[in-house]
Amino acid sequence: MAFQQKRRTQTAEYWLDEFAVYKEDIEYLYEWLVEESEPRTVDELSLKTMERRCHREEEALSKRNDRGLIYQPQDKYEVGQQLVFPAFDYAAGQVLAVRVGNNPRYGSFRVIQVQLENENVPREFATEFSLDHPLKRSVALLEDSANLLSPKQLYERYGQNVRERLQDALLHSEDFVHFNGHWFLPGLMPEVTPFHLNIAEAMIDERGQSLATSQLLEEVQLPPGSKTSVRVYALDYALSRDPRFVRAGLPGQPSWYLDNLIPAGVRQKPTRLRPMYKAQGDEWLNRELYDFVMELGDEADELGRMPAAMPGSLDSVQILLTYPHRREGTLPLTTRALSLLSGKLPERFMVTFLDRPNREKITGWVMPTAGYAWGLDEWYHRHGVPIGGLVELHRGDALLTLCIDYDEGKRKAEWVKEAKVFNGRLTFSMQRKAYTGRYDRHLLIDEGRVDQLDGLWTNAGEETRSLFEYLTEIFPELAKLSGQGLVHAKALYSAVNLTRRCGAVPIFAELTRRACFDPVGDGNWVYDESLRNVTYNASEEMSRRPSSRRQDLIVDRVYQYGRQ
């Protein structure tokens, strides 16, 4: 069995510590793209770079007797010797001089001066170097050439480091352009003129919807002679550099829309959806309130560390509508709801909402990071979806399609809380109202005159009172609607969101730790003004509520939110 010096390209030290992108690498990739005549990913370019390095080392090893010895820092060399330097793309060089090294930190060693081929200025290298060094480790071992790792196997192990350094080098090269993870050469792309871009703008404006690049090319006639993939790439690249156009599709499947057509509620998150109070984690809640949080599914209550459903793992979700989303024509999107969509999601993209009963198509937008979808205002009004309405969202059959449904059923009348504004304060009365469809009766509130509610709306950063102070103001207004002074926790949450955006967790945490609020069963709470200034600090106190004057108090163990 034949043995030979261990190839440096077979070592982790070479790819993780020594690897750098040289001019020769860039020139090689340029020539390769000319041959391919098609955009390639940075992964493909990185693999080609690693293949070339392995091939060059193989060539250098096979010709080392002709070109010289492979430089190793621990060896001794004389003037006139020919050496090969793998770190410099296997360039050969002649030793011009030898001198004693001068650095007490490294002990005794020598320095050789070498003139490398294709370079004008000599370089210096350490020799007879006794200390440890990455080059020394990478060449000192022996290997069985039959067990060499292939370039593909090497890429699987070390490709990330190569990819990062190569991408940085390509970004600093004027000879390459990139779009959507693919790199290409400008000289190989058909010219996209202002006339072509104007045609694309007119097509999108006329149809009022985003268009895929392939659709745009039906009328944007680029010069012939290039592959379809190259024409698509050229137009994508040109559109990405024109501020009139914005990407509206998923990664890998770009579609294009006009920046001036993007609605205000999509361009930035509506102030009515920005929480004044949101979950921070570790809030104490009793078990019943914790279950309500899960049931309500408020996107403001999500914590980054909370587990989410895997993308594409669900076929449908049910969503309870709060007043802020009902008012803005938006839909709350938790990580659970977003799992209806597969793959990595961009910050903003267009979707088609499909009304399940009549198959009507509604153009909408999804903002995953911001936690909401936009475009359902007219649909809510047409179907009469109330505050607390139960909306169903289903995975669509087509990509970027979500089916939306509100089971209207028969209209039925019942006594409902109606919001009113009196002397600049939010008040409530009971009115007999008729609704269709499914809804949560505790969340159900008739908003009355929304213009009056708008006058009371307070945005994040504008409130001068604490959440607790606001709760003690609004709780009695709700309690007066019950003969026993009861207020359901979900009703309190729904009422607060009429004038302030707030997740359920901060509200329920105040109920749990404030002695003036007491649970009496079935989600109902009562308020004792005399205990307003008493706060429970320990979990045992929150559970037993020792300050309560109620004899029928229900003791319920408490839990820290986000630690379940």
Strand order of the largest sheet: 15-20-21-17-18-19-16
Percent helix = 25-40%
What class do helices, strands and sheet pairing give?
alpha+beta
* Uncertain stretches of 5 or more adjacent residues: 137-144
Number of helices: 19
Strand tally is 28
Q: End-to-end span in angstroms?
A: 60 Å
What does this structure look like?
This protein is an alpha+beta fold and 564 residues long. The chain is 32% helix and 23% strand. The protein has 19 helices and 28 strands. The strands form 8 sheets. Strands 15-20-21-17-18-19-16 form a 7-stranded mixed sheet. A 5-stranded mixed sheet has the order 3-4-5-6-7. It has a 3-stranded antiparallel sheet with strand order 2-10-9.
What descriptors fit this protein?
alpha+beta; 7-stranded mixed sheet; 28 strands
How would you sum up this structure in a few lines?
This protein is α+β, with helices and mostly antiparallel strands. Helices cover 32% and strands 23% of the residues. The protein has a seven-stranded mixed sheet with strand order 15-20-21-17-18-19-16.
Write the layout of secondary structure elements.
Blueprint: E1 3-5, H1 12-18, H2 23-36, E2 40-41, H3 42-62, H4 64-67, E3 69-70, E4 82-85, E5 91-100, E6 110-116, E7 123-127, H5 134-139, E8 142-144, H6 151-171, E9 177-179, E10 182-184, H7 194-207, E11 211-212, H8 213-216, H9 228-240, E12 245-247, E13 255-258, H10 264-267, E14 284-286, H11 287-296, E15 316-320, H12 323-328, E16 330-332, H13 335-338, E17 349-355, E18 361-367, E19 372-374, H14 377-383, E20 390-395, E21 401-405, E22 412-422, E23 425-435, E24 445-446, H15 450-456, H16 467-479, E25 487-488, H17 489-496, H18 504-513, E26 517-521, E27 524-527, H19 539-544, E28 558-560
Parallel strand pairs: 3-4, 17-21, 22-24
Antiparallel strand pairs: 1-8, 2-10, 4-5, 5-6, 6-7, 9-10, 11-13, 12-13, 14-28, 15-20, 16-19, 17-18, 18-19, 20-21, 22-23, 25-27, 26-27
Helix pairs in contact: 3-6, 16-17, 17-18
